[in-house]
Write a structure and sequence with these properties.
By secondary structure, this protein is of the alpha/beta class. It folds into four domains: 161 residues, ATPase, nucleotide binding domain (Nucleotidyltransferase, domain 5), CATH 3.30.420; 100 residues, Nucleotidyltransferase, domain 5 (2-Layer Sandwich), CATH 3.30.420.40; 111 residues, Nucleotidyltransferase, domain 5 (2-Layer Sandwich), CATH 3.30.420.40; 106 residues, no CATH class. A hairpin with a 5-residue loop joins strand 2 and strand 3. Helix 3 crosses helix 4, helix 10 packs across helix 16 and helix 12 packs across helix 13. The chain is globular. The N terminus is likely disordered. Keywords: Carbohydrate metabolism, Kinase, Transferase, Xylose metabolism.
Length: 546
């Protein structure tokens, strides 16, 4: 899939740049796709690669096997190599820098020999609610269900034997980075979802580490949490380099040479912020895919811990309020697959771009309140609305205007429904000021439709840039390029990540910004009231439909 970032026509020197190892690689392991982006120093995309994969539900846990991780990154890199060969007529054998990003947090515990102690437990698992609640009380911070520390305490409270053998606890990005470089480190943005970060943005909060260690059942364990967590690094810091073993994992053909500078590994929230240049106070970004999250950079602290709001950081360590939802476009994609099959049966098959364009366009023509049609996109449980076990539902009043236009409007509203609930807590209850929300993800590829829906839902201007469709891997490639610049010759390094992005990457990027519309805001507010009122139906469905 071609990346749509700031990409001018290929220059004559591009082939030489790639052949000489001056390009930067970003690789992101998302929920449904592993993506790679190869860029030059200015952020222009030279080639892309991708690999489709899916999580599995094994023994009541959503997981990906490490074998699928290894095979997936290898296949994604091979796809990138093919793209380089086809576009530029050269072989990719050297890299200036490399960066790894992945879906946030979850639980990957290893023993001293590097053996995984239990299958990877992803962000999608919601059985950590009791552990997260206990930690929130003990630490005085909101600890979300998906955070690594919540998974760890859940395992301790469940009497799981493997916890005594714990020697390293990391994220998926941290694991892949260690395999490529031999270094057990995390970028501060990803680390902030493993355990709370100190107010300075430098390392884990020492006082809270002590509080965790004093919890019942924890003090008796043969390790301290500080010793098993990865080192925390900010954007641009030295995170090692690509080893011979790491190069062979990425490229089993042996063509790729070791030595590339490695960026601190990050979560997909951090790369989304970088890809949209949303790292300054009063800016934010929404990343929409299988799940959705909004990141808002804060000017000042919130009033106190809130269950709806996660406190994390930018890749540079600045405080960020995060609204995370487990569900976004998955159910919408399923419905569009159904319409695609109907088109095939009619003898007029449509490709994805055409299908999405037609149906999203219909949604744009729907009534502002979706005509009384409600859509719950809960493939999994949704903590923002206190739904423990999700069941996708389409619900309507007896007198609802059930048209295709209103159906699609409800689908688009539903994709952002839980996010809108969380954003009300941040923007209305906490009074956080937000000048603009940058958006990226595949749902925004159809120009103007989901963008306007989101603007109306959060009553904030929403901007979509040229990187909207494929932001994550590109954002990680930018962090890799920044790291290479910071670790390069003295005197030429950019002063900060913010200045690097502003001066070198985004100075010429065009943005499309849509303002919220009065009719749209009023209609969405009416729809959201009905959505909240009918949540007991969604909860009951989870109880009855096993």
């Amino acid at each position: 899939m071609t990346h749509a970032a700031v990409t001018p026509a290929p220059r004559p020197e591009t082939a030489a740049l790639i052949a000489e190892g001056r390009a930067h690689l970003g690789l992101e392991l998302g929920s449904t796709r592993i993506k790679a982006a190869l860029i030059d120093d200015g952020g222009a995309v030279l080639a892309t690669g991708s690999h489709a994969w899916e999580n599995q539900h094994v023994e009541d846990s959503w997981t990906y096997s490490l074998e699928s991780v290894h095979a997936g990154i290898g296949d994604c890199y091979a796809d990138l190599v093919r793209d380089v060969r086809e576009r530029h007529g050269v072989e990719l054998t050297q890299l200036a820098s490399v960066g790894i990003s992945a879906m946030m947090h979850g639980y990957l515990p290893f023993d001293a020999e590097g053996t995984l102690l239990t299958p990877f437990r992803t962000w999608r698992n919601t059985y950590t609610s009791e552990a997260a609640a206990e930690l929130s009380r003990a630490l005085g911070r909101n600890i979300p269900l998906r955070w690594s520390i919540a998974h760890l305490l859940h395992a301790i409270r469940g009497g799981e034997e493997h916890v005594r053998d714990l020697a390293e606890l990391t994220t998926l990005a941290g694991y892949v980075h260690r395999r490529l470089t031999g270094r057990s480190v995390l970028g501060v943005g990803d680390a902030s979802g493993v355990f709370p970060i100190a107010a300075s943005g430098e390392g884990y909060d020492a006082e809270l580490l002590e509080r965790f260690g004093a919890l019942e059942g924890v003090a008796e364990l043969p390790w301290s949490l500080a010793d098993v967590l990865p080192e925390v690094l900010s954007a641009g810091q030295d995170a090692g380099s690509l080893t011979a073993e790491g190069a062979a994992l990425l490229d089993p053909t042996g063509a790729l040479q070791p030595g590339a500078v490695a960026a601190p590994p990050e979560g997909d929230a951090g790369t989304g912020m970088v890809a949209t240049h949303a790292i300054a106070p009063r800016t934010g970004n929404v990343s929409a895919g299988t799940s959705a999250f909004a990141m808002v950079v804060l000017e000042k602290p919130l009033s106190g811990p809130r269950e709806e709001i996660d406190m994390v950081t930018t890749p540079a360590g600045d405080p960020v309020a995060m609204i995370h939802t487990n569900n976004c476009a998955g159910d919408l994609d399923a419905w569009l697959g159904l319409f695609g099959r109907f088109a095939e049966l009619l003898g007029r098959p449509a490709d994805a771009e055409e299908l999405y364009g037609i149906l999203f366009g219909a949604g744009a023509e729907g009534e502002a309140d979706a005509g009384g049609v409600l859509s719950y996109n809960y493939i999994s449980g949704e903590h923002q609305t206190r739904v423990p076990s999700g069941r996708p539902l389409l619900v309507r009043e007896q007198n609802a205007r059930f048209t295709l236009e209103n159906f699609m409007r409800a689908q688009l509203y539903g994709a952002f429904g839980a996010l809108a609930v969380g954003m009300e807590a941040l923007l209305k209850d906490e009074g956080v000021q937000l000048d603009v929300m940058f958006a990226h993800g595949g749902i925004f590829r159809t120009a103007g439709v989901a963008q306007q829906v989101l603007a109306d839902a959060i009553a904030t201007p929403v901007a979509v840039g040229e990187s909207a469709g494929e932001g994550g891997a590109w954002g990680m490639a930018l962090l890799a390029a920044f790291t290479a610049a910071r670790q390069g010759a003295a005197g030429s390094a950019p002063a900060s990540l913010s200045s690097f992005l502003a001066e070198q990457i985004f100075a010429s990027q065009e943005l499309s910004t849509l303002e919220p519309q009065e009719a749209g805001m009023a209609g969405h507010a009416q729809w959201l009231d009905a959505y909240r009122a009918a949540l007991p139906v969604e909860r009951r469905a989870g109880e009855l439909l096993a």
